[in-house]
Amino acid sequence: MAILAAVVFGAFFTLANCDGNVIVETTRGTVTGFKVDYGNDTSQLYYGQADVFLGIRYVQPPVGALRFAKPVPLTKFKEQPYDATQFGDACPQKGNARGYNMSEDCLVLNIYTPDALSVYKYSVMVFIHGGSLKDGLLGDFPTPGIVRNLVSRGVVVVALQYRIGLLGYFTTHSDEFPPNLGLMDQTEALKWIQQEIANFGGDPYRITLMGQSAGSSSVAALLLSPVSQNLFQQAIMESGSILTCFEGAMGFTKLSQNRAIQLCNFGEDQWDARNFTALKEDCLQDMDWHNFLEYEDSNIRGWMLVQDDYMLPATPRDLAKNRPNIPVIYGNCKDEWSGVDLALLAGGYNISTYNREYFEFIFAVYANYLGENEETVIGILESVYMPPGLADDDHVGWLKTMSDIFTSAGFTGFTAKEVEWYLENGNDQVYTYEFVFPTDIHRVYNVPGWKPVFHGAELDMVLMQDYFWEPLLKNGTLSPDDVAVANFMGRTWTNFAKYSTPLMDGSWTPTKTAQNFEYLEINVQQTMKTGFRTADKLVWNKVLPQIIGIWPPNVPDYNNGTVSL
């Protein structure tokens, strides 16, 4: 309580003393950043010092002739010195809630380091944002939380942007529109980091990737890809498997083909004829990017990673057989899906909407790939997840049931499967967790009688975004437990980055077998348990494959132009 009292009665707004510029020499030219100093009083909400470099381009801007092109390395900065004192533009999207400038010249990274000129080289954490591969930007993660909870514990943090939406994931599996451009961008950023991070005080041989949601799916993909898997040494994956964002894992969306029809009137016959030069030159190459966003509000699943012949040249289950056995943290929030419904309720949905009919309607929207098996699958899911005697007018009960089913379908069943792949390969350094702390940070709606642990709750404890934390501090509702759990997450994640083990006393032990499936339950008090998401594993990885087959199915090896960069 002492920490909270000091915070409440101290200065509310996050104030930093910017003591001047920091100049770094890189192989690409001189970079100018700045110092921040939030003080040393750990009883305050924010504290710590860092050298900060914002908006550094890591490849040539993907504009003009480079739109839809594979990323092109940037060997020299055009500007000398390079001004890295302002956030770069966000990539085009609908989710830019804080109003940052947007442009296609958005492939930038931020660096936060304890001391850019240090002779000692710090471990490096590379953060990849989420957003369903259609949203997300570095401006959503302000400097104070990163400095307070990560950098002040002795690590360098790098956060990067990558092409999202149609510009990053539209593909014809051809030279005109190569697949997985956003994933290629991330790979180029990792190459840049390997080459330059020592100039900012970081150790290029101690790099830990960290991603959340679609960012976690991206980290999982980078681990599986033969192109990128040797560019880092460890990984932290929060609330996202590659299967969460992989085309075919939950049916085929054919989103690229649909966009070609919607934006260019490029019909199915033309698509099948593969005249993609016309699609590019006559329509998409010069189209205003604002038009690309027209249909994103209805894009409920987001964009997808796809199997190709370069970055992801096989299905995830086959790529996993050759994945390096490196230390990883892998986990989820208890009620991932609830974040979707809490946002809907906050936006005006009535809780009386939630009943059996509504659940089965939403399930049909997401699971249309099940075809004639849909009713059978719904029956199995309701028998497993629906409480006995659940009345149709028990709206909170149906809200919870929906959350349990969709959390298992899109998150935890996939997470369990990926961890099992690691164990099958003999990886004895897999640390599994479930985040169950019901924080009020970033909670947009209060459900009577139920306090779900929604998607993204653990990330708010790691990066401590001030626009979520400070309102609770101001109105006196910030809990000491929030501060305690944030401290635990920051300490644990940085321990892992520095020492390859999350808790120095060894109390968080790796998952040893798929049968016991040991994991850490993260709450105000942390507890090692066995039996991670047992029902989800059984339903999605054992029972349903016998009915619907194994997803994603193998697909042809496309000749898609993704030759070596």
What attributes characterize this protein structure?
Rossmann fold, 565 residues, 13 strands, disordered C terminus, 13-stranded mixed β-sheet, disordered N terminus, alpha/beta, 34% helix, single chain
Layout of helices and strands, plus pairs?
Blueprint: H1 2-9, E1 21-26, E2 29-37, E3 49-57, E4 82-83, E5 108-113, E6 122-128, H2 143-149, E7 155-160, H3 165-169, H4 181-196, E8 202-212, H5 214-224, E9 234-238, H6 255-264, H7 268-273, H8 276-284, H9 289-292, H10 316-319, E10 328-333, H11 338-346, H12 356-366, H13 374-385, H14 395-424, E11 430-435, H15 457-463, H16 466-475, H17 480-499, E12 519-522, E13 527-529, H18 534-543, H19 545-548
Parallel strand pairs: 2-4, 6-7, 6-8, 8-9, 9-10, 10-11, 11-12
Antiparallel strand pairs: 1-2, 2-3, 3-5, 5-7, 12-13
Largest sheet: 13 strands, mixed
For the secondary structure, the number of strands is 13
CATH topology: Rossmann fold
Total of helices: 19
Q: CATH homologous superfamily name? A: Alpha/Beta hydrolase fold, catalytic domain
Radius of gyration: 23 Å
Shape by Cα distribution: globular
**Span of the ends, CA to CA:** 55 Å
Strand content: 5-15%
| Helicity level | 25-40%
In total, the number of domains comes to 1
CATH class: Alpha Beta
CATH architecture, by name, is: 3-Layer(aba) Sandwich
> How does the helix and strand content classify structurally?
alpha/beta
Please tell me the overall pLDDT: 93
InterPro entries: AB_hydrolase_fold (IPR029058), CarbesteraseB (IPR002018), Carboxylesterase_B_AS (IPR019826), Type-B_Carboxylest/Lipase (IPR050309)
Enzyme class: hydrolase
Family: Belongs to the type-B carboxylesterase/lipase family.
Organism: Panagrellus redivivus (Microworm)
